[in-house]
From TrEMBL:
High-level lineage: Bacteria, Bacillati, Actinomycetota, Actinomycetes, Micromonosporales
Pfam families from the UniProt entry: AAA_16 (PF13191), GerE (PF00196)
Organism: Actinoplanes siamensis
Domain HTH luxR-type: 826-891
A GO MF term: DNA binding
Gene3D superfamilies, sorted: P-loop containing nucleotide triphosphate hydrolases, Tetratricopeptide repeat domain, Winged helix-like DNA-binding domain superfamily/Winged helix DNA-binding domain
Record keyword rRNA processing present: no
InterPro entries: AAA_16, P-loop_NTPase, Sig_transdc_resp-reg_C-effctor, TPR-like_helical_dom_sf, Tscrpt_reg_LuxR_C, WH-like_DNA-bd_sf
UniProt-recorded name of the protein: Helix-turn-helix transcriptional regulator
Top-level taxon: Bacteria
Record GO cellular component, one term: cytoplasm
GO biological process, one term: regulation of DNA-templated transcription
Length: 895
């Protein structure tokens, strides 16, 4: 079924330039889009051939419908079979770690890709990418920006989505890539001249107008054209006379399926049956599998396979068999009567289970085998719910939703099945579907404990998505049931504590955190105890009890160190770092963040990554390293968006607003603020210090002090009981006083001074708290002495931004000596770069991968990626080799 590539000269020229760019050391990604049969696969085969000529390593694979049932099969399969083979992916050939440690596998994949790209440029081609599995889609989404500075080129071909499959992981990935990057390469229909040339290739002779006119009825689609003409040849309705092909007779095929049926009918009966039976697999298959399904000995199948390979089957890269195009497989599949399809799927389920195929693939066949199979699928998926939810929650949820439709509304197992499905939907961040289905289940008479667990899943999903009010509502409803196990109550109180804190009900949050701690320890649910203690640490931080905040976080960390297990997945060092930063213990905070990040990487806790980025941004901001802070915040925002962690995106965007204002980039600050507003409009909530204060800073910087004051009225009123803004930003105290004073609100200005004094009194020994109190008082009363005391406090605390603000106020009050030191001279080499970027550039120039740079400099991999993007942009470079040459010219050889 192969012919010359015709009519794609423009696309081949573009892709050839891309391959040349890759061979020269550049990376990047592209999507190739067009309807089924338009020639994407044929074009990709030519691209792979051209890449091999350029000495690129090529990892190519076609995705199949049932890839979605096997975690990481799409990407890992491509890399396992790359040409030429490389030791970098050797570990993938011997086992399937993605089933047991998926996120650890993703980290190792990145390291392997960096290693392979260091050996030679790498081209990764995924055909029919819309069907890639969930974990592969996540991996590609993370790896494309991570490897942007390496010679790794991605080429993903896909068909436009239908209404039924647009939310599949592959389609979601393509939409994200299309939104964030270059326009897709679109394959259009072939023109009439090209169709005539194609017709001649298929027929093997020149063709007349009767053939061209009939071929034109296929709308310029090469697959449909070829299949139609082959059907006409097979049935004798297209004859070649004197070297010219013509269409004769009537009763021509009226559709693509009809043309496929015509060719199937030319096969022997055993070959046709084998072909139709194999169409139920929906993926490449082995001869042994096909023989078992067709009910024949393996030896008898080989001649049948040879017969079918003329028009239908090809060998796949792993030595099995596959249909030449999935559209052809679907057409063959449609020829089977329903009862026969169901029986074949029943047998295919047994075969796939026997050979150890993924549980979701087995369940898919069971669901297609009729009502009794649906019950088997439910039992299978529920028995493996823990593993499945970890690696492919979306695919598992799809199976369960289909099972719910199959078993009917009166099935006695339906309520429990709904509860499990809600949990899977929540794990896949499909919150609207989870809430809708959960609402149905909550009225279906579940047992109290089952319903409470369902509500816990909904509460945790809402917390992850920033829907804190709904989180509290679900948790309260669950806690209303009597007799729940202590561990379950502890988990409900823990998530409730964090949500209440973000909603501002601090006493209730602290009470819930305390109950989570007590009940969790009593019920052996140490993860809930740790999460409850973390909530109490957050409440203490928010109310300005910094030493208590530190103590709660240290106690939670000690529980993790003692008991491990689920407790370790709560990562209390996040809140420990926050308390340490507030107490000016920056070196210890830096070490805690490094340790915590390593633990998160080891446990695969991707949800923590935006938080680590946020608190390291806060640390860098506090210590005046603004450019590094901006890179850290941008990196965290990228991760938050990748994981749909909208609640965690809000504080990072707030930090970016403040950083942009400090750096004088008002348009960038406005863009970040617009993103905050869009999330807020979608119902994502955040604490006022994270979103209102940055907006007020921007308003004040643009001469809108009155608007800033109006926006901050709630913060002014709440400062006595909630001084969190003064804790996280000591310079904010004087700024709040200035805004209130300049807009004619002396009472509010005095209230800020009182709150700052109270905070300093609660936290003896905190130099920044004492400095904030002195600074606020000095600005309020015009007292130079107080402002100079603030200068001394901020200098001792090591907070240069707060120090600069105090020095500026001292100068305004007539203190002529209070001038900042002159800036340090620019470095001799790479003066365009910040110090942090220069350190990264030197390590990359020494030949290190991004992962190795991150380990050397004790920063996250995402931060290295972001630094490199900035370095390339500032220096006008696109390749690591160009950076190494630039460094060598300006700094000398790197050893």
């Amino acid at each position: 079924m192969s012919w010359r590539l015709l009519g794609r000269e423009t696309e081949v020229e573009l892709l050839t330039r891309i391959l040349d760019d890759t061979a020269a050391g550049a990376g990047g990604w592209h999507t190739l889009t067009g309807p089924p049969g338009i020639g994407k696969s044929r074009l990709l085969r030519d691209v792979v051939r051209l890449a091999a000529r350029r000495d690129l390593t090529v990892a190519a694979r076609e995705a199949f419908h049932l890839d979605q049932a096997a975690p990481l099969v799409t990407l890992a399969g491509a890399l396992r079979d790359c040409t030429p083979a490389t030791a970098a992916f050797g570990w993938l050939a011997h086992r399937e770690p993605e089933r047991f440690d998926p996120f650890g596998t993703l980290q190792r994949l990145r390291a392997s890709l960096e290693q392979a790209a260091r050996e030679r440029p790498l081209l990764i081609v995924i055909d029919d990418a819309q069907w890639m599995d969930e974990l592969s889609a996540l991996a590609v989404r993370e790896l494309i920006p991570a490897l942007e500075s390496s010679p790794v080129r991605w080429l993903l071909a896909h068909r436009p989505p239908s209404a039924q499959d647009r939310e599949k992981p592959g389609h979601q990935l393509i939409r994200r890539l299309t939104r964030d990057g270059a326009a897709p390469i679109r394959l259009g229909v072939l023109d009439e001249t090209t169709i005539a040339r194609l017709s001649a290739d298929v027929v093997g002779a020149e063709v007349d107008n009767t053939v061209v006119a009939l071929a034109a009825s296929c709308g310029g689609n090469p697959l449909r054209t070829g299949q139609l003409l082959r059907a006409l040849v097979a049935t004798g309705q297209l004859v070649v006379t004197d070297g010219v092909g013509s269409v004769v007779g009537g009763d021509l095929p009226s559709s693509f399926v009809d043309s496929v049926r015509e060719v199937v009918d030319t096969l022997s009966e055993p070959a046709a049956w084998m072909l139709q039976a194999a169409s139920v697999f929906g993926r490449p298959f082995g001869v042994e599998e096909a023989a078992r399904l067709a009910g024949r000995p393996v030896a008898e199948l080989y001649p049948l396979v040879r017969e079918a390979m003329t028009d239908f089957l090809v060998e796949d890269g792993a030595g099995g068999l596959a249909f030449a195009h999935d559209a052809v497989r679907q057409a063959v599949y449609s020829l089977l009567p329903r009862t026969m399809r169901e029986q074949l799927h029943r047998e295919a389920a047994a075969i796939t289970q026997d050979v150890g195929r993924p549980a979701l693939e087995v369940a898919d066949h069971q669901l297609r085998s009729g009502r009794s199979g649906a019950a088997d699928a439910v039992r299978l998926v529920r028995s493996m719910a823990g593993m499945v939810a970890r690696v492919a929650p979306g695919a598992a949820a799809d199976v369960m939703v289909r099972a719910l439709a199959a078993i009917g509304p009166d099935d006695p197992e339906r309520p429990a099945l709904v509860a499990d499905t809600v949990g899977l939907l929540a794990s896949a961040a499909r919150l609207e579907e989870a809430r809708k289905l959960g609402g149905e289940a909550l009225g279906a008479g579940l047992a109290p404990e089952t319903e409470a667990r369902l509500l816990l899943g909904l509460a945790e999903a809402c917390k992850h998505g920033g829907r804190n009010e709904m989180c509290v509502r679900y948790a309260d409803e669950a806690l209303g049931y009597a007799g729940l196990p202590a561990g379950l109550q502890a988990r409900l109180h823990a998530v409730r504590a964090h949500a209440l804190c973000y909603l501002g009900d601090l006493p209730a949050a602290d009470e819930s955190g305390a109950r989570a701690d007590t009940l969790g320890r009593a019920g052996g649910e140490y993860g809930a105890a740790v999460f409850g203690l973390s909530g109490r640490s957050l409440v203490a931080f928010t109310t300005g009890r910094l030493h208590e905040s530190l103590d709660f976080a240290r106690t939670a960390t000690a529980l993790v160190d003692e008991f491990g297990g689920e407790a370790a997945h709560r990562h209390p060092r996040i809140w420990l770092s926050a308390a340490l930063i507030a107490l000016d213990r920056f070196e210890e905070a830096e070490q805690v963040i490094r340790t915590g990040r390593r633990e998160s990487d080891r446990t695969g806790a991707t949800w923590t990554e935006p938080l680590w980025h946020h608190f390291r941004t806060a640390l860098l901001f506090a210590t005046g390293r603004l450019e590094e802070a901006a890179v850290e915040a941008e990196s965290g925002l990228l991760v938050a968006e990748q994981h749909a962690a909208h609640a965690l995106a809000m504080p990072l965007l707030g930090m970016l607003v403040r950083l942009a204002v400090v750096r004088g980039d008002i348009p960038a600050a406005q863009r970040h603020l617009d993103r905050i507003r869009r999330l807020d409009a979608d119902g994502v909530t955040a604490v006022p210090e994270d979103v209102l204060w940055p907006e007020a800073v921007l308003l004040d910087a643009t001469g809108s002090a009155q608007a800033a004051f109006t926006l901050l009225r709630g913060i002014y009123a709440g400062l006595p009981g909630r001084p969190a803004l003064l804790v996280s930003d000591p310079a904010a105290a004087a700024a709040l006083v200035r805004i209130a004073r300049d807009t004619g609100h002396p009472d509010e200005a005095a209230a800020v001074v009182a709150a700052a004094r109270r905070l300093a009194g609660r936290n003896p020994g905190s130099r920044s708290a004492a400095g904030a109190a002195a600074h606020a008082d000095g600005v309020h009363r015009g007292d130079l002495g107080q402002v100079l005391r603030a200068v001394a406090g901020f200098r001792d605390a090591g907070r240069p931004l707060a120090l600069a603000a105090a020095l500026e106020d001292a100068a305004l009050l007539g203190h002529s000596e209070a001038r900042p030191a002159p800036p340090a001279p620019a470095p001799a080499s790479l003066p365009e770069l910040s110090p942090a970027e220069r350190r990264v550039a030197l390590e990359v120039a020494a030949g290190k991968t991004n992962i190795e740079v991150a380990e050397t400099l004790y920063i996250s991999r995402h931060t290295v990626d972001a630094h490199l993007r900035n370095i390339f942009a500032k220096l006008g470079l696109r390749r690591r080799a160009e950076l190494a040459a630039r460094v060598a010219r300006e700094s000398g050889p790197i050893t």
